Amino acid sequence: MEFWVDALLVVVLAILIDRFIGELPNPVHPLRWMGNILDAINRRVKNRTSFSATVIGFLSYLLVFALFCTIGLLITTLARYGVTQLASPFWGEIAWIVATAFMFKITFAVFSFRHHCDPIAADLEAGRVEDAAAKVQMIVSRNTKGMDAEHIASSCCETVSENLVDSICSPTFYFGLLGLPGAVMFRCANLMDAMWGYLNEKYARIGYFPAKFDDVLGFLTARISPYFVAFAGMLLGMDWRAAVPAAKAEHTKTPSPNSGWSMTAVAATLGISMEKKGVYIMGTGPMPTTDDIRRCCRLVELTSIIYMLTVTFILYALLGIHVQTFVEGYVQQIWGCLF
Q1: What are the tens digits of pLDDT across the range 241-255?
Q2: pLDDT digits over 129-165, tens only?
Q3: CB–CB of 310/304 below 8 Å?
């Protein structure tokens, strides 16, 4: 098959896997393994205030990137190589498409936040505010105990809209640009930023490189995301014209240099406000309701699919698939020499 056909099948299959199969169980999820490795490194760092801690953070990133990138490329390479030997090059290509789609899927999430948010919305509709607050604690870092219904709904909308960049636009952009190594490159930086990206004595040094690298990698994707939110909002009959102006005017309200772009665009398109007490208030509408949680999920999901079928597919067909197969050629040669 042509490269562009392979690229399209990989992207579409990855979306279908995300929709109908979802996430791997937590004990066997590669991000959990990555987190365990980083925890083990973190426990062994004694001097956290010197430049050596910054070097350890950088080397830790290189370690997890090299390890998980190698594992992913081994799986995709051996899928093609093994099935080609057992059957034919055609079936080897099919095996490669399936393996790449599964590896790619691990690096992004479109539909998983609906699985978290739907039970929260159901609790709010039933008046179980404390149960909803407990469930929200699983998807946000702030203290949710005693949170009212409006701020619970806002927390859901904030998380879903913020993760449009971190969980979809950025990893799929770098997959399109560099293939599977690109997606792993971003996912490692983003996970390390989530774990170590804190401006305190414990993490300021060790988390410096991954936090800055995550900001750099997300710079472009954050700033183009409002345009895709606007297009999806137009298809859904929402206030799509407000998305881009709101993002340009209000994106600086969040501490992160990137997260505010998608959050403000989604808030404006939905016609709601989002509030994290003591940090920001974005949007000019009322605080969200349970219906707004579901509208937010639909908006972000449609935005993600449009983005992946345009930006990710085009980049992957033109660049990423060639980069990935080039690197896989060397992996196959090394495997052949060793075994």
Answers
A1: 999 999 999 999 998
A2: 999 999 999 888 888 888 999 999 999 999 999 999 9
A3: no
Check residue 275 and give left, alpha or beta (phi > 0: left; psi -120 to 50: alpha). beta
Q: Which residue has the tokens 């290189």?
A: 62
Q: How far apart are CA 323 and CA 21, in angstroms?
A: 28
Quote the CA–CA distance of 199 and 204 in Å, as a whole number.
Answer: 5
Angle separating helix axes 290-307 and 149-163, nearest 10 degrees: 0
What would the two tokens of residue 30 be? Answer: 């590669």
Could you give phi then psi for residue 257, rounded to 5 degrees? -75, -10
In the block, which residue shows the tokens 């997300």?
A: 218
The pLDDT, as a whole number, for residue 191 is 96
In angstroms, rounded to a whole number, what is the distance separating the alpha carbons of residues 304 and 300? 6
The amino acid at 79: A
| 3-state class (DSSP) for residue 276 | strand
| Measured distance between the N- and C-terminal CA atoms of the chain, rounded to whole angstroms | 29
Q: Examine the pLDDT at 336 and tell me if it is beyond 90.
A: no
CA–CA separation, 52 vs 163, rounded Å? 32
Q: Give the whole-angstrom CA distance, residue 118 versus residue 51.
A: 45
The answer, yes or no, to whether residue 1 has pLDDT greater than 90, is no
d(CA 115, CA 320) in angstroms, rounded, equals 30
Distance (Å, whole) CA 339 – CA 336: 5
Helix (H, G, I), strand (E, B) or coil at 282: strand
**Position 69, amino acid:** C
> Which is it for strands 280-282 and 274-276: parallel, antiparallel or unpaired?
antiparallel
CA–CA separation, 273 and 260 (whole Å): 13
Q: How far apart are CA 191 and CA 147, in angstroms?
A: 27
| pLDDT 10s digits, 166-199 | 999 999 999 999 999 999 999 999 999 999 998 8
Q: Which residue has the tokens 């093609």?
A: 80
